Amino acid sequence: xxxxxxxxxxxxxxxxxxxxxxxxxxxxxxxxxxxxxxxxxxxxxxxxxxxxxxxxxxxxxxxxxxxxxxxxxxxxxxxxxxxxxxxxxxxxxxxxxxxxxxxxxxxxxxxxxxxxxxxxxxxxxxxxxxxxxxxxxxxx
Length: 140
What we know:
By secondary structure, the chain is of the alpha+beta class. The chain has helices at about 10-15, 20-30, 45-50, 60-65, 80-90, 100-105, 120-130; strands spanning about 1-10, 30-40, 70-80, 115.
């Protein structure tokens, strides 16, 4: 089943200059780029995007990190794109991530973990629409 998911290359990975390597990992594994842009989120944008975590103890540090530098946001599409993206990213904590995953390769710690990906179809729809209007997404 072809689906879409949101992927974010976080400020730590952008600063390390590994954008191309991350995108190559996605495309080499059958995911297509349906939309892509680099942005520098404002505090309001980061807080809005992560509003689901507002009551969590890490909310302030997460939003602070996400506004610390530019990010690359993209829509990935493909067969089981959400699951495939999450497998390629690896565990949230890079210390627990499998060898070869993006977080094992590029993350610093559990917060500065290089990439974000939607976790479910409903989340993907919400997250994609946060950054991209439908007309800005290329259909397969």
